Each structure stands twice: as structure tokens, then as C-alpha cells.
């Protein structure tokens, strides 16, 4: 293996510590404590784990954590009423509705009911539009974490060829917008792209976010490229369930210049950036300077 391993776990720990330091200063200098409200509807096991982790990380950063766990049969009207209360609560600076929602609830309607200034997931249509036009917005956490790691590794990204494999609203599209904002030449590719391997091979930065285990083999990676693997896939291997990314790590690590592992790469950055977004939202709400290095 020749690639440098980009340690997302260690990087996320640094981001969380930086956020905690800003929070402590907000409390000491202004008497303000950022607050994050997380809404969970139903009992999806994976979602429950995420919510617990988010709550724990929020408290560890010195923020206030408000958890709202609702029955799976909760009506759309009741959920929207709760969001309305959180929008109006000055102690709540960030609101996150855990996805997926039960099938009887309209996710787009629910997300767009959140005050865009408190939309720390960055999914509200207003934030999507602001990001797409290069204006100040709340940026989705996973792409923001990827951008932070790329900036840390490379410094300037200007002029680099970037290929994003995946076109989701949550990762692929906002990732491409962020890379454009840092003056990369960006291609969005996907499972139906013709000659996908050739497209990937020209990338100085290759971001894999397609949701297919080890879809990108090592010989699709340009020698010396930086590979950001967003995928988290559970597969059976050797009689055990293991986590793998969208990239064949063993093959890619032989030719890449740097690569994120799975697990321990992009994943830990998502919650760290959720905390960073909550801090940013709190600063904006109170007319205070935004923390440098924690936004796009």
C-alpha cells in the first residue's frame, strides 16, 4: 500500500474539540449555549443509534440537546406542529428530522417546514438553492466533512479535476457544488455513465458516493489521486458481516496518493459537521462572527 490514509476519526475529533472551544467562549462571553433538536419518528434501529450518538456528541461539545421521539403512527399535522414550535424556540438553533420517515409522511414537506436558518442538515430547498448559486447557506454535513478533509490534505483545490460518482441530493450534488466553489473542474458521474472507468481515471479527486459495495476497482483510480469514499455498505465476507465502501480499498490504496478508509473515514465527520453547523447557525442567529474553518 502506498496511499496515505486520511484518518476521518482523528480529524473529526479535532473538529469536535474546536467546536467545543467555540461553544465555551460563546457561553463565557455572551451567555449563549447552542441548542440542537433532533426529531425521531418511529423505531428504526439504525436511526435510533444515530440519534443517540448525535445526542451524546452534542452534550460533549457543551451544547444543549433536545430529543423528540415520536410514535411511528404520528400524523403529519402533529409532526409539522412540533417543527413549528422548534422553529419559534430561541433556545433551538439547529433542527434535524432523522430520515427515513415512516411512509405515510412526506419527507420533502417535513424538511421544507424547517426554518432554513435552523436546517443544520442543509436539505431545505432554500439552502439547496443558496448553495447552488454560491451564496451563504447551511451545507449538508457529509459533503462538508469531505471538503474539510480535502482542504486539510491539499490546501488549495483550485484547478484540480474532480469526479463525483453519485448524484444524490444528500451527497453527490452538494459535493459537486462545493468542489466547484473551490475552483475544481467537476464531473458528476453515476452508475449509467458511459465508460465510467475512464471518467474516474482522469480524476485528481475521486469522491465515491454511489451506494454500491466496492463498485470502483483500484484500476479506475488515477495514480496519486485522492479518494474520498462516502459509501458504507454491509456485506458478508468469510462468514462475517463487514463494512466496506464504494471503492475497493485494497486495490485503490496501491495507486492512490491518499484515501479514506471505511469505516473510520467520512463517517465520523458527518456528526462533527452537524455540531459545526449548529454552532454556525447559533452564531448567525445572534449576529456573531462565524467560526473560521468550520463552514464551506
From TrEMBL:
Could you tell me what this protein does? Catalyzes the oxidation of 5,10-methylenetetrahydrofolate to 5,10-methenyltetrahydrofolate and then the hydrolysis of 5,10-methenyltetrahydrofolate to 10-formyltetrahydrofolate.
UniProt keyword annotations, A-Z: Amino-acid biosynthesis, Histidine biosynthesis, Hydrolase, Methionine biosynthesis, Multifunctional enzyme, NADP, One-carbon metabolism, Oxidoreductase, Purine biosynthesis
Q: How does it assemble?
A: Homodimer.
**Which Enzyme Commission number(s) are listed?**
1.5.1.5, 3.5.4.9
- Identify the residues that bind NADP(+): 166-168, 232
Pfam families, from UniProt? THF_DHG_CYH (PF00763), THF_DHG_CYH_C (PF02882)
Q: Which CDD domains match?
A: NAD_bind_m-THF_DH_Cyclohyd (cd01080)
User: Residues in domain Tetrahydrofolate dehydrogenase/cyclohydrolase NAD(P)-binding?
Assistant: 140-284
**InterPro entries this protein is in?**
Aminoacid_DH-like_N_sf, NAD(P)-bd_dom_sf, THF_DH/CycHdrlase, THF_DH/CycHdrlase_cat_dom, THF_DH/CycHdrlase_CS, THF_DH/CycHdrlase_NAD-bd_dom
Question: What is the official name of this protein in its record?
Answer: Bifunctional protein FolD
Which Gene Ontology terms cover its molecular function?
methenyltetrahydrofolate cyclohydrolase activity; methylenetetrahydrofolate dehydrogenase (NADP+) activity
Recorded source organism is: Albidovulum sediminis
SUPFAM superfamilies membership: Aminoacid dehydrogenase-like, N-terminal domain (SSF53223), NAD(P)-binding Rossmann-fold domains (SSF51735)
Family indicated by similarity: Belongs to the tetrahydrofolate dehydrogenase/cyclohydrolase family.
Q: Would the keyword Protein transport be found if you checked this record's keyword annotation? A: no
Per the record, the pathway is:
One-carbon metabolism; tetrahydrofolate interconversion
Q: Where is the Tetrahydrofolate dehydrogenase/cyclohydrolase catalytic domain?
A: 6-121
Chemical reaction(s) catalysed = (6R)-5,10-methenyltetrahydrofolate + H2O = (6R)-10-formyltetrahydrofolate + H(+); (6R)-5,10-methylene-5,6,7,8-tetrahydrofolate + NADP(+) = (6R)-5,10-methenyltetrahydrofolate + NADPH
Amino acid at each position: 500500500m502506498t496511499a496515505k490514509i486520511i484518518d476521518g476519526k482523528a480529524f473529526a475529533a479535532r473538529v469536535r474539540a474546536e467546536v467545543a472551544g467555540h461553544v465555551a467562549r460563546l457561553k463565557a462571553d455572551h451567555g449563549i449555549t447552542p441548542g440542537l433538536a433532533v426529531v425521531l419518528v418511529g423505531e428504526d434501529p439504525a436511526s435510533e443509534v444515530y440519534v443517540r450518538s448525535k445526542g451524546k456528541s452534542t452534550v460533549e461539545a457543551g451544547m444543549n440537546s433536545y430529543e423528540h421521539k415520536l410514535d411511528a403512527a404520528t400524523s403529519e399535522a402533529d409532526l409539522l406542529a412540533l417543527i413549528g414550535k422548534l422553529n419559534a424556540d430561541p433556545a433551538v438553533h439547529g433542527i434535524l428530522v432523522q430520515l427515513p420517515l415512516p411512509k405515510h409522511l412526506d419527507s420533502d414537506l417535513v424538511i421544507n417546514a424547517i426554518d432554513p436558518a435552523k436546517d443544520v442538515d442543509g436539505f431545505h430547498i432554500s439552502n439547496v438553492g443558496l448553495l447552488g448559486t454560491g451564496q451563504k447557506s447551511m451545507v449538508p454535513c457529509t459533503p462538508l466533512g469531505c471538503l474539510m478533509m480535502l482542504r486539510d490534505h491539499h490546501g488549495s483545490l483550485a484547478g484540480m479535476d474532480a469526479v463525483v460518482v453519485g448524484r444524490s441530493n444528500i451527497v453527490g450534488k452538494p459535493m459537486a457544488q462545493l468542489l466547484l466553489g473551490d475552483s475544481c473542474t467537476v464531473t458528476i458521474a453515476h452508475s449509467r455513465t458511459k465508460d465510467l472507468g475512464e471518467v474516474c481515471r482522469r480524476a485528481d479527486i475521486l469522491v465515491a458516493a454511489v451506494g454500491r459495495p466496492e463498485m470502483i476497482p483500484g484500476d479506475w483510480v488515477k495514480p496519486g489521486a485522492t479518494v474520498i469514499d462516502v459509501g458504507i455498505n454491509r456485506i458478508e465476507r468469510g462468514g462475517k458481516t463487514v463494512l466496506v465502501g464504494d471503492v475497493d480499498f485494497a486495490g485503490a490504496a496501491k495507486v492512490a496518493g491518499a484515501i479514506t478508509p471505511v469505516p473510520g473515514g467520512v463517517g465520523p465527520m458527518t456528526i462533527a459537521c452537524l455540531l459545526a453547523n449548529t454552532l454556525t447557525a447559533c452564531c448567525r442567529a445572534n449576529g456573531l462572527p462565524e467560526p473560521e474553518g468550520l463552514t464551506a
